Amino acid sequence: MKKLSCHDLFVLFVALILISPISATQATNAHEKKTTVSLPALNIPFSEGDVVLDGELDDKLWTKALLVDLNLVNSPWNNLPSPIKTTAKLIENGKFLYVSFIAIDPQPEKIQGFLTDRDDAWFHDLVGIKLDTHNNRRLNYEFFVNPYGVQNDATFNEITGKANSSWDGLWYAFGKKTPQGYQVEIAIPYNILNFKSDGQEKKWAIELVRTYPRDTKLRISHVPLNRDNPCWLCQYPEAIGFEKAEVGQNLRITPAITATSNEMRNVYANDDWHAGNDIEAGLDVRWGINANNLLNATINPDFSTVESDSGQLNVNTNFSLFYEEKRAFFLDNSDYFSSDFNLVYTRNIADPDYGAKLTGRSDKHSYGIFTTNDTETNILLPGNINSSLTTLAKESNLGVLRYRYDYDEEISVGTITTLRTADDYHNYVFGIDARYRLSDSNAIKAQFLNSDTLYPDQVDDFFKPNNSSFTDQAYKVNFVHNSEYWLVDIDHRNIGESFRADLGFMPRADIKTDDILVKRTFYAEQESLWQEAAIGAEWKIVHNTDNELIKRELSASFNIDGPLQSKLELDYVHAEKVGLRYDDSISDIDSNTTLFNEDQFKLYATAYVNNRTYVSLDLTLGDKIDYANDRLGDLAQVAGNITVFITDHLEFDFYQTYSKLDAKHETGIEKNVYVAKISELRLAYQFDVRSYLKLSMIYSDIDRNQGDKTKDLSTQLIYAYKINPQTVFFLGYSDNSFQDNDLTKLERSQRTFFTKISYAWAQ
Question: For residue 293, is pLDDT > 80?
């Protein structure tokens, strides 16, 4: 009998998914036409007066408010009655939209809500509101509050399917626990929202939500959601009213002063510390020109008070790591610049002196433009099997222009332009993109880009085809079917060899990728130990633009949720992929690389041991290319995390990553390639919703087989007092220590003391 190949097993697995018990009639009827349900609108009353945010809900204004019951569980249950009672009230006074919640809990001692920093409570008990103030079902604001009044806000882009939780609006909330559960009051000022201000009645898409994490995490709403339509925003009812909504002058000026004392020393020479003191002033201006247009300007934005990035393993990796943006200027209305390809990655802008940004929306048109400079020009040089970073010792100027036209709820088209320029260097990118929702469950997206680039002589010749300006194209086409039981995602992308998007995060070039994902979801009965499970299969193949094979990958997956809010995912991956080039001076793949076979087993599991303790485990076992030596190795990698709220104020987080790669030899004797360990400890004491003290320590220990050993330790201690995200006081200390083969112990090489004060003056 012939032995089945991995390809044969994959085909059988896909066939098993496709013949799973769902009738063709059911699948067809579910998607032939749109299933939008017309829900009654919420008429938001207007009344003069104010609310004192104290969680008591005893203000006179609340007696005139609209009452809404949140009585449906739409995840993981399919719009079944909620087992707990939640009541919301809504009213507005022309300046604020006020929302309150009374969240009843039969077991308040199990509430999963603690004092923590803003935007760190997304997995707590929450109540909140979602608003699409243009009612075009493209983007909504999200405002959520935990039982202690900790604020969580974000924007969600329905076209890209991504949420931006780094967005920070200036709004107000108060929460308090009660013997029956908890109560929350929210005040959302209109001057942080974009909408058409014309004195006429307005219609905003709206949803009120409560998350109830216990043994199973329930999402409770007043809106029934159709699982055959992945666009939940498209299904929200309308809130009607807001005739007197005013944005005022909507001017916010935020000056800031930062003082640093930075000390460095040469640890090899047993040198003394050399200190350098610096005081810098910065300014952020946010002006709502009108309710549709927002102007941001900044002078000297800085990273000095940003918490240290999480530790990432960068051993035996070929491509650059991704880090999140945290500067307020770049985050405000950043969704206006998003597209399928990541063309605007502002962490590339290392040290700007100034910046200006205009964003707006009018009827079916949305637009954004920003310009800035960079005193340190970092360039990500892409390739098909590796990327690298280089820095130009010159200042550059940068700009982005983005426009989108929403013809209706189904069709959107847009353009985007990015540029970076300096002496003997430029990169221009122009692109068009479109999205068409064929039905509730089916959508097509496409994007086409053209770039024109000139690199200076100092850039490696491998990454510049010639010494003059060079051009190329990139495009992608994507079809998605996303319904109650089925997910089918078909993606094709082609990025030319000479295509560059230096302002974005596109570490790969000279590739053609075809990717097909099929996933079947199953749902259990309401009282089962599990609620949702899925099996899936994916096929991906990558060539360079000369059709030389880079990677062929087949994978099968199974995931299921369970008790204790647990999630388990199992993956088996078989891949054929090439190592690095024998000769880096030529771009050929065939006869210039070795094709390896990798088989990997992956496990990912998370659970809440109790309402205070969260654990996760990420395990990978199998084959892995040793890129430094161009050979196949045995990989054992495990990453774990435990988060414990020791008290309602004190949070303990510990992350541990261990990775070991052993080389395979024909003799059967394995030799260690490397052992890498990263330990990350974070302690946070939250005095109240405004102030905290945080300690972070990140330690890495890497031992390579050539005898190259490195150890690094970075620590950071920050005290912060935040009246709001822009009115803050920081006082901090950080240092870095390292050890290599020439040092017998960790030696501290850098330490910094810093403080920052900023104040948001608003009118």
Answer: yes
